[in-house]
Specification:
Shape: globular
Structural class: alpha/beta
Largest sheet: 9 strands, mixed
Number of helices: 12
Length: about 575
């Protein structure tokens, strides 16, 4: 019934919007302010037609493609009319030094020097404001405005600093319990840490700010903070060339400054906490509690957790750093309580089990989420049951991480590379979100296009295991190839990249999402469908994406980066 309703809705919208689309597309062409070809848009209506072998499905695909193009034209028209932020600079004025970009380590080490040894420091701090019960803060999830009423299980920033003491510089990881951290805020944190390190004479080669992607934490991006107010106020400010803070968003601004300052302090504490020890690795099968909501990826193809365990020589508490490919969406934001989801309970389990520390980075999340976790809900409210399920899931992950086989001891060799990339915001909805300052991502322009600087990274441990860092919510098939989705696609073409697990010879590479920015979904180009939520269960909602070619842009740059660095 739901699918039939969606299909009826799509047909209806196609008819209703067709006349508006004609006007907007004409405006776009006449003003010569866009390079989108009307001919390309017309031909794209037939993308993927003939691949299903079913006339009815092909007909519906044409209607969906038509709807996608109409919506894109409408939003693009709004973008053209909406005044740009006066803070936007031309891309020619971009300066890497101003934002504290770090290119990584200068030399690629193929073996550990005699003086090399692992050292690691850890710290964790709450980012929940003291007056959280005031009801003035926003939960981050979507355009729906949700104010907080209290805290369910805390929201933290966890920081770990690791070095091989080769003199090439330490690597910093900070993971914030939130939906995402924009490049603007990640770079603010980085610059503050760099200033501190310069004062203290500490050499760092890489500073990475990531998000655990919790859907029930405070809003760090601005997505849920008064959309319609921002739409009007930002338009007026942009038009008048003002950059004043919107008074209605005082608490949102206050929280942003607070989580930034707490993140900086956590990293400083981690730098001061460093001690020598040994680093071990384990890959963990999590397929029993993780599944693909699209039902495209079979259990046996669910990516494994990449987990590191640092054991200090002093015998003090161990630190676990785990790359987990599972959405933290067990706990709803609808009850108004701040929650970091299962991450809190992994942390709790590890502390209770052996007094250890924990930091999570998000794997290639795509549409990977938890499988059903059963609890006895007798006598529980809806929210209490959600909390119990979340705790159960966190403890299951925690048990897997602590009990894993860490027999792989990594040699004290750390190799690091980062590369700046420049991404055109093909998706006009994202471009509009940046224009109205719904999110505070860094944006530039070339006079026509909205261009968003970002970065990718590669961090290798012991010449054996590496993490590939991406600024988006990466779909697994982007990194592991479309073989794991049986070649499913939307436009009838093929994804041009194979499995990148061994993209560096002799090294097993694991992808990390939402590193140093939060630019929405990155799905393979051939499976990009703009209004995916209408199309059906097997196609995700790419409305929240930077555009059709983001995945190939990321992967082509990743391949260039590692080829140049590890040659």
């Amino acid at each position: 019934m739901k699918k039939k309703f969606m299909r009826f809705t799509s047909i209806f919208l196609c008819i209703v919007l067709l006349f508006s689309a004609t006007t907007v597309s004409s405006f776009a062409v006449e003003t010569n302010k866009t390079d989108v070809s009307v001919l390309d848009s017309v031909t794209s209506v037939f993308d993927g037609v003939g691949t299903s072998g079913n006339v009815g499905d092909d007909f519906m695909k044409v209607l969906y493609n038509m709807l996608n193009n109409i919506v894109e034209f409408l939003v693009k028209g709004i973008c053209l009319l909406y005044p740009n932020n006066s803070n936007w600079k031309n891309i020619d004025e971009y300066n890497s030094d101003e934002i504290g970009f770090l290119a990584g380590r200068e030399n690629y080490q193929t073996a550990a020097a005699n003086s090399n040894c692992w050292s690691l420091g850890y710290a964790s701090k709450s980012v929940v404001p003291a007056d959280i019960s005031s009801g003035n803060y926003y939960l981050g999830r979507d355009l729906t405005v949700r104010k907080t009423s209290g805290v369910y299980d805390d929201m933290r920033v966890r920081a770990a600093v690791i070095d091989d003491n080769s003199g090439e510089g330490a690597v910093v990881f900070a993971a914030v319990d939130c939906l995402g951290v924009t490049s603007t805020d990640a770079r603010t944190i980085r610059k503050a840490v760099l200033a501190y390190c310069e004062e203290q004479g500490i050499k760092v080669a890489s500073i990475n700010i990531t998000a655990t992607h919790s859907h029930s934490a405070l809003d760090t991006q601005g997505v849920s903070t008064e959309f319609f107010y921002k739409l009007v106020a930002s338009g007026v400010n942009n038009l008048l060339g003002k950059t004043t803070t919107n008074d209605a968003l005082t608490y949102a601004e206050s929280f942003k400054n607070y989580f930034i300052s707490q993140s900086v302090e956590a990293i400083k504490e981690a730098l001061a906490d460093m001690e020598t020890g040994s680093l071990y690795f384990s890959s963990i099968d999590c397929s029993e509690i993780v599944h693909d909501k699209r039902d495209l990826i079979a259990k046996e193809d669910i990516q494994e957790i990449a987990s590191f365990c640092f054991v200090p020589a002093s015998g003090s508490e161990a630190t676990y750093i785990s790359d987990i490919p599972c959405h933290p969406t067990s706990f709803s934001a609808g009850n108004g309580l701040v929650a970091s989801d299962y991450i809190y309970y992994i942390d709790e389990y590890i502390k209770n089990e052996n007094g250890g520390n924990f930091l999570m980075v998000a794997g290639a999340l795509g549409q990977l989420s938890r499988s059903d976790v059963s609890v006895d809900e007798t006598g529980m409210t809806e929210w209490e049951a959600m909390g119990a399920e979340t705790k159960n899931l966190g403890y299951l992950f925690g048990e897997m991480i602590v009990d894993a086989d860490y027999s792989t001891k990594l040699s004290p060799v750390l190799n690091v590379a980062h590369k700046e990339i420049f991404i055109e915001a093909e998706n006009s909805i994202l471009a509009l979100a940046v224009e109205i300052q719904l999110v505070n991502n860094v944006a530039y322009t070339d006079g026509i296009k909205t261009i968003m600087p970002a970065e990718i990274g590669y961090i290798e441990f012991g010449n054996e295991i590496a993490l590939a860092l991406f600024p988006c919510e990466l779909y697994p098939e982007v990194f592991y190839s479309t073989e794991i989705t049986n070649g499913t696609n939307w436009d009838g073409t093929e994804w041009q990249y194979g499995d990148l697990t061994n993209s560096v010879e002799g090294v097993t590479v694991y992808p990390v999402s939402l590193a140093n920015d939060a630019l929405g979904y990155a799905v393979t180009d051939n499976n990009f469908a703009f209004m995916g939520h209408i199309i059906g269960e097997e196609i995700a909602d790419e409305t929240l994406s930077i555009g059709k070619h983001i995945a190939s842009h990321l992967i082509s740059n990743y391949c260039e980066m590692i080829e140049a660095f590890a040659e």
